[in-house]
Amino acid sequence: MRDTFRILFYIKRNSPLRDGSVPVMGRITINGARSQFSTHLSVPPESWDVRQGRMSGRSRTAAHVNARLESIRFTVERCYYDARCYERGEVTPEMVKERFMGNISSRETLLGFFRRHNEEFERMVGVSRSRATYNKYRCVYLHLERYLHERLQWTDLEFSELTHEFLVGFHAYIACECGHRKNTVWVYLTALKHIVGLARSRGYLDRDPFADYRFKGESVPRSILSMEEIRRVAVLDPGSAMLRFIRDVFLFSCFTGLSYADIGRLTMRNFESSDGQLWLNTSRCKTGTSVSVRLFAVPRTILHNYAPESNDVPIFRLPSNGWCNHCLERIMTLAGIHKRVTFHVARHTFATTVTLAQGVAIETIGKLLGHKNIRTTQIYASVTHSHLRCKLDRLEERLESVSELDFIPKVLF
To answer: Of the candidates 302, 250, 236, which has an alpha carbon nearest to the alpha carbon of residue 271?
Structure first.
């Protein structure tokens, strides 16, 4: 019986990219069985001709896209006829797809694939991806590019050349020559491992070069501010409007537990009064988890000072996270606090000094922080010395009451 072989190109209307375009997909059908693959192309949905399976119009973009689609069609057809000649048994769409992916894998390179990944990722920033994560991938790409050009004198390398030795060399490069700390190296290698995993899932690699490669981060003590240090920051006159603004928003985070990204999205619509109390209701940028925090005196005062007239504009128009951290370094120096304090330290401070040390249950702290897993809360909410001292004071009181029993000697020496 003759196979019914067909190639169809279609668009994923339900997965729009940031610029409004949609991905173009390919579908291989043989005797009713199907297998889909990505063409790595995208088009405006209104310019797609469904009946023709191509981009309509005579623009340069349309000509380029349609030429690429014809090239893909020709390659897939060739893979199908090769499979019929060399494969035993029935030819399936998955077999043709594997031949097609293997056909282009010999021309696929690490930097080229990584660059396209970053371009697609950037188009989704603000939709389903964050700018910070994009910056991480971009930074890893730049390190890879410099390592290849400066140390190996290569312009790029094919995925077939990605070996264990290459990973060892790149690891040493970012750790030693670039001077990154162990946790930064761990983050960068994890990002590269993700890229390699994506390439492998698309047929560009038949093995995992990270399979026997071990790397890990290290646990580092998390900085927090004590109540006395919070008070010193609060009463400080930084001397400039910018430093005063950064100080106020930092204190707002100390008493609400919101991160830099979450605070930057707040508008007056996130606040509501209930039973005479003011509540902050939002969802976390990172996880989408709902957060509801009651505002006490300090954050209420800060909100009152910066509340805009419109309910729809951001309350705190923060500069970049890096600049905020630079300003906080200056603020801490003026306050006589000799710690490395970043904006995220406010979230740690809320989890420990403001809540845990005051007797708030760890489960409640997890809900206030918007954590999905209690283990994450346990990492943030380390036991402070003041909290430990309070617990020991209560224990001492109990032991002293027990010592009144006759069988406990009053004086041991």
So the answer is: 302
